[in-house]
Amino acid sequence: MSAVLLRYLAREIFGATALVLVAFLGLFAFFDFINELEDVGKGGYTLYQAVVFVLLTLPARVYELMPIAVLIGTLYALATLARHSEITVMRAAGMSNLTLVRMLGIIGAVFVVLTFAIGEYIAPPAENAAQEWKLTATKATVSQQLRSGLWVKDGRLVINVRTLMPDRTMRNARVYAFGEDYELLSISEAKRGVYDGSGEWKLLEVSRTNFLGERTEVEKLPEIGWRSDLTPEVLSVLMVAPEHMPFGKLWSYISHLRDNNQNADRFEIALWKKVVYPFAALVMMALAMPFGFIHDRMGGASARIFMGVMLGVGFHLLNGLFSNLGMINAWPPIMAALTPSLIFLGAAAWMLHYVERR
Q: Are 204 and 191 spatial neighbours (Cβ–Cβ below 8 Å)?
């Protein structure tokens, strides 16, 4: 009997969640497209390219919206079952609250795996492709948000890249080399920089100024090498928000920042959110569960769905709020990432206890 009920509940919840997710994606895609219309016509950016850009960002939207869709979908499915007294019949037939929790946990585990897979393997490359597509279409550069270009510290080297192209080749790079006592040893100016795939950047057409005590020496070099852990893939942090980066790239960039004594709080919080966020689907299902035991005294399914939307929006806002508070107040990254889920899990436990007492 449990297997039959599990399949029935899974079908209802999966169907309702898919419907909610499609509706949300359509809404967000529409607003994203309206936002892109402001850039149409700039640098040859066409309407077709704007549509492609919006479509490429949809996997990241799916990742962001999955917990909210699970909450509303589960609310709708349980509210429908409650309205038809099916939950009452199931409980009368011997289904305990523990059994229902176990079945919802199995269904929720599917959403956890799906959310993790999308956030790790589908959304990052799609988001990266979307940003490359737009930068190429608008003839923009990755590093144009800073007037002086991109600055990177790598050991005793400080690299300034005036222009980083969408294909992650460099234009007009400048390398400052410092000694053990932080004295400036040389400044190398390269017209171009390319990555050779073996862990080394090739800086081409170089003019290097060496500081030798009280005199300087200028030399022209066809090429110099810069070996670094900063691969083009790691530099994709400039194009994709940390929350949309895969776990491996986040870890590599955090290690680089730590090795160079730089602040990595934002990326560490994003790393822990990558670990915690998929489990938000389970929290949302736990939050929806008490509504399955409430009949139409609350105003029916429409009132519960509205409440689900409000709770989902609240979770999304709280998630962003704690990320910002974590960076501002230097909280442990795991605390900033985990607290919103713990708050909503506590609310779910209190609501379930309240419903049981009534």
A: yes
The average pLDDT across 7-32 equals: 94
CA distances from 140 to 134, 238, 240 (A): 8, 13, 15
Which string of DSSP letters, residue by residue, matches 191-209? EEEEE-SSSEEEEEEEEEE
Residues 184 and 327 in one domain: no
Answer whether 291's CB lies under 8 Å from 78's CB. Answer: yes
Give the residue numbers spanning the domain of 195: 169-231
> Do 10 and 129 belong to one domain?
yes
Could you tell me the two tokens for 25?
């994606």
Model pLDDT, residue 294: 61
User: What's residue 160's pLDDT?
Assistant: 86
Could you report the per-residue pLDDT of 12-22, keeping only the tens digit for each? Answer: 999 999 999 99
Same domain, 280 and 320: yes
The C-alpha atoms of residue 164 and residue 232 are separated, in whole angstroms, by 10
SS3 percent helix, strand, coil of the chain, rounded to 5, is 65, 15, 20
Rounded Cα distance, 132 and 177, in Å: 31
DSSP conformational letter for 236: G
pLDDT tens, residue by residue, 159-184: 888 877 767 788 888 899 998 888 89
Question: What mean pLDDT value characterizes the chain?
Answer: 84
d(CA 35, CA 64): 19
Q: With both helix axes pointing from N to C terminus, report the angle between 280-288 and 97-117 in degrees, rounded to the nearest 10.
A: 150
Residues 269 and 349 placed together within one structural domain of the fold: yes
Of 7, 19, 24, the C-alpha closest to 58 is 24
Same domain, 284 and 339: yes
Averaged pLDDT, 106-123: 94
76: left (phi over 0), alpha (psi -120 to 50) or beta: alpha
Between the ranges 26-40, 86-100, 188-202, 287-301, where is the mean pLDDT highest? 26-40
